[in-house]
Amino acid sequence: MRKVALQIDDASLIDRIATILTEDAGIGTLHPGNPDVVITDHLQFSEAVPTILLGDSLNGPEALKAGASGILPRDVAVSDLLLALEAVNRGFIIMPRGAAGIVRDPASHDPSGLPRDDLLTPREFEVLRLLAEGASNKLIARRLGISFHTAKFHVASIAAKLDATGRTDAVAQAIRLGLIML
């Protein structure tokens, strides 16, 4: 990824973001053209290009429904912005941890409007959350008060339901499906 379009109305914010991208990351910034990612500060998105909204975390769910690939605070750290650019460019959805919680409600809907309420059980969502944190089966069992074998069964069930090859792939698939957010 080398081209980022900036669609930012706030002059001081556009200067800060442009400086971060050009000086710290060596990424070319441009105004509308053929970008790899768009960074904006308003709620109008093109679904053809991954878009990051710089704004209030309260707009997070609304921004995602409108087609944004993620939301970051206006005072985003350099490292977080660069990581977010890479993530959305690879097809992930990003949002700060406190903006909407780590795991979406199982009854939520994906952008295509298909319900997800029967994809994973509530217990599997708990296990998935712990998988996303990097927990081992032993730690999952301890935190949830279940046996090691039951934890192992839940991990295998999640992987099968998400058509994943393993625990890491299950987390990646869950992110792509919008079940969990970075």
Fraction of residues in helix: 40-55%
H and E string = EHEEEHEHHHHHH
Largest sheet: 5 strands, parallel
CATH topology heading of the largest domain: Rossmann fold
Write out the CATH superfamily name of the largest domain.
Response regulator
Please count the helical segments. 8
How large is the share of residues in beta strands? 5-15%
CATH architecture of the largest domain: 3-Layer(aba) Sandwich
Number of E-type strands: 5
The global form is elongated
Terminal CA distance reads 20 Å
Mean pLDDT: 78
- Highest-level CATH class of the largest domain: Alpha Beta
Structural class: alpha/beta
Main sheet: strand order:
2-1-3-4-5
Number of domains: 2
Unreliable spans: 100-117
> Roughly how many Å is the radius of gyration?
18 Å
Provide the descriptors you would attach to this structure in a database record.
Rossmann fold; alpha/beta; 10% strand; 2 domains; elongated; 182 residues
Describe this structure in words.
It is a single chain. With 182 residues, this protein is of the alpha/beta class. 44% of the residues lie in helices and 10% in strands. It has a 5-stranded parallel sheet with strand order 2-1-3-4-5. Strand 1, helix 1 (11-24) and strand 2 (28-30) form a beta-alpha-beta unit. The longest helix is centred in the first third of the chain and has 14 residues, at 11-24. The radius of gyration is 18 Å and the shape is elongated.
